[in-house]
């Protein structure tokens, strides 16, 4: 349940929806679990002010997959911001996820907070980077609204996970981004996808969050690609008027038994 007076956000990430319903990836029906996560999230909280979908909405991007995602998100009847991951086609996202309550907007404002959505995608590559335009966008938004606390959402992670195979895909200019964040204390939080596992650390006043996937999970602290048995999940975030962030990871009950343990990559 949300705290009275706080903004209530739902973060969904790494859906990996496939071209046809019922298709499986690594043994997992990703679309089935996306729907199950949405149902669980609606029971967790009856009201959300914003939904953030932080990349890898699809695995093999195509209009049909984005159309089905749109339909599921539209049914939430909540303002929803979608940003791209390394598996997405950003042009298709902007075509099919820009109607009604769904958009690929990069910025939304509330009374005490603003939320910025970044594009860390390098087309054709797994790793991330923030272009000069993205870095300039951050600083412009912060300087225009210095009195608003800020939450930033981006797909790729910017601090090491200590899983060496995953950290080859970290945002390449993370140091540059974190230097900017250090100059603007109104940035209170950064939430990411991509890592398919939970993260919650502090760098000074900046809280950095990583959120589980709505489908399969990666086992933490591994030197090579390793799947975890943890169930699909999502994150709820509360943004308080005094700049505090409270947050919780939620998962579907049980153990993900159908994962294909013979897979060595994705």
Task: Walk me through the structure.
Helices cover 23% and strands 24% of the residues. The protein contains six helices and 14 strands. The strands form three sheets. The chain has a six-stranded mixed beta sheet. A hairpin with a 2-residue loop joins strand 9 (199-203) and strand 10. The chain has a single domain (7-251), classed as Purple Acid Phosphatase, chain A, domain 2, CATH 3.60.21.10. By secondary structure, it is α/β, with parallel strands linked by helices. The protein has helices at residues 30-44, 63-74, 90-96, 132-144, 164-167, 174-183, and strands at residues 7-12, 50-54, 80-83, 102-103, 107-109, 113-117, 149-154, 187-192, 199-203, 206-210, 217-218, 227-228, 233-239, 245-251. The N and C termini lie far apart (35 Å). Keywords: Hydrolase, Iron, Metal-binding. This is 3',5'-cyclic-AMP phosphodiesterase. InterPro entries: Calcineurin-like_PHP, CNP_phosphodiesterase-III, GpdQ/CpdA-like, Metallo-depent_PP-like.
Structural descriptors:
266 residues; Purple Acid Phosphatase, chain A, domain 2; six-stranded mixed sheet; globular; 3',5'-cyclic-AMP phosphodiesterase; 3',5'-cyclic-AMP phosphodiesterase activity; CNP_phosphodiesterase-III
